Amino acid sequence: MKPPRVLVFDVFGTVVDWYGSIAREVATAIPSVDAGAFALAWREGYRPAMQRVMSGELPWMTIDELHLLILRDVLARFGVGGLTEDEIVELNRAWHRLAPWDDTLEGMRRLKQRYMLCSLSNGNIGLLADMAKHAGLPWDCILSAEIFGKYKPHPDVYYGAARVFAVAPEEVLMVAAHQDDLAAARACGLQTAYVERPLEFGPEREKDVRDNGLNTWHVRDFIRLAEVLDA
Amino acid sequence: MKPPRVLVFDVFGTVVDWYGSIAREVATAIPSVDAGAFALAWREGYRPAMQRVMSGELPWMTIDELHLLILRDVLARFGVGGLTEDEIVELNRAWHRLAPWDDTLEGMRRLKQRYMLCSLSNGNIGLLADMAKHAGLPWDCILSAEIFGKYKPHPDVYYGAARVFAVAPEEVLMVAAHQDDLAAARACGLQTAYVERPLEFGPEREKDVRDNGLNTWHVRDFIRLAEVLDA
User: Fold this and answer.
1) Percent of chain A clearing pLDDT 90 (strictly above)
2) In B, which residues are within 8 Å of A133 by CB distance?
3) Statement: residue B1 has pLDDT above 80
4) What is the rounded average pLDDT for all residues in chain A?
């Protein structure tokens, strides 16, 4: 296997800890609810909402717009009233302020010395740029489903990343903490690296992080990824 | 005038010195030609080539593809034979290696402390990402005509930058060394800053860098831009 020329990263859960960050902001904004359960419910609405876009039931909407749609629904289901429209919109921006995992910044700094580092997220460009500035993520380039007009796991997104850099799919390495994302990337010919993020869904929900033997690399965290990639 | 929230930059000539960089690479690759004249001829082919795309005569092509098209034509006009296909493709990548002006990096570092810094160039994403990595340009986000499917000065590009960040056009400041780019940005409601780059076309071709009184700011360089924007 030749070394990759471009590394593309899933972001939510892989680079940043959405559960912990969202739960913290929810706990502050709405002290009356179970913040962890609220964070999980918000995130669970994400995939069905994207599928409504990809099926054509909804027009193209950014993740910011989908997050807001889901938030209104989750607020109703949790019986939360009394937030102003401004407060709801501000809470929705919590996704722009997600915190990196402990190893993220050091791992990225090392990998950046040797490789082109890009996001490849369903998050919209503005969200990803705000998050990078807030968290100090040293991207070389922000790539988003918004650029390709399709959400992962649509092949256009993975092929699109290779096309942007005029490289073959096998010269791109997709890094993610989600096997379905990596399976779709593999089907397009990309190299893949699975990163264990056992606490992605919080301390109370177990995540299966075992090696399924299908990826180019299976690593504990970004430091280990830098090591196996000689960065 | 409210302070802007996002700064978007023209790149070729504004952030980097295409004339000097291209002339240096041409002088090395093809010692027999007048490298400055060759650089000017290559750049002069750029606008007509983009217009052929925008008129529909050519399908969407990236700037890398257009640069290659023009390069073949310029090589023929300068009577240069004997380059291999690999050498031609490598010379075309000189546009990925353009050097910043002396004030660029310090100015950007200061501006980045306070503002979101994005490219807004007709250059394709891969070219701009390679250039940023090579030159150390600290973009928060790379925006390109490639994302919007139109070349500047089409309004979709300027409005697109505002839409990406969900801000009003007047909250975006376009920075450029070209009055036509700024006029188009102004027509979309953006704030504008003209940056003098008197040597854009080399030491032998004069450039009119006088203040036309139409822009929000008129500055000598990026250091002065940081000063007037309190960064």
Assistant:
1) 99
2) 116, 140
3) no
4) 97
Interface touch B165/A132, C-beta < 8 Å: no
Q: Taking the complete model, does pTM exceed 0.90, yes or no?
A: yes
Residue where a domain stops, chosen among B97, B129, B148: B97
Q: Which tokens belong to A85?
A: 């429209």
Map residue A19 onto helix, strand or coil: helix
**Residue B15 in 3-state DSSP?**
coil
A221 and A126 inside one domain: yes
ipTM of the complex in this document: 0.96
What single string gives the DSSP state of each residue in B113-136?
A: HHSEEEEEESS-HHHHHHHHHHHT
Same domain, yes or no: A223 and A143 = yes
Look at residues A97, A118, A149 and tell me which one is the last residue of a structural domain. Answer: A97
Chain A's closest residue to B131, CA to CA, is A140
Answer yes or no: is A219 within a domain.
yes
Closest Cβ–Cβ partner in B132, B146, B165 for A140? B132
Q: CA-CA distance, A36 to A62, in Å (whole number)? A: 24
- What CA–CA distances, in Å, run from A206 to A11, A38, A42, A197? 20, 17, 18, 10
- Indicate the residue of A124, A126, A164 with minimum beta-carbon distance to B126: A164
Residues A104 and A212 in one domain: yes
From A41's Cα to the closest Cα of chain B, the distance in A is 26
CATH number where B63 lies: 1.10.150.240
**Average pLDDT estimate for A88-112:** 98
Type and span of the H or E element at B207: none
| Whole-Å CA distances, B110 to B61, B102, B104, B113, B185 | 35, 14, 10, 6, 24
- Nearest chain A CA: its distance from B60 CA (Å): 14
Which whole number is the average pLDDT over A9-18? 98
pLDDT tens digits for range B122-168: 999 999 999 999 999 999 999 999 999 999 999 999 999 999 999 99
**Could you tell me the maximum CA-CA distance found in chain B, to the nearest angstrom?**
57
Closest partner CB to A125 (pick from B126, B129, B141)? B141
CB contact under 8 A, A143 and B126: no
Domain span holding position B54: 18-97
Alpha-carbon distance of A156 to A53, in angstroms, equals 15
Pairwise CA distance, residues A15 & A49, whole Å: 22
Which of the four pLDDT bands, split at 50, 70 and 90, describes residue A40? Answer: very high
Take residue B124 and report the two structure tokens written for it: 């394709």
User: Rounded to whole angstroms, how far apart are CA atoms A1 and A197?
Assistant: 25
Across the A:B interface, residue pairs with CB atoms under 8 Å apart total: 48
Closest CA to A174 of A210, A225, A128, A220: A225
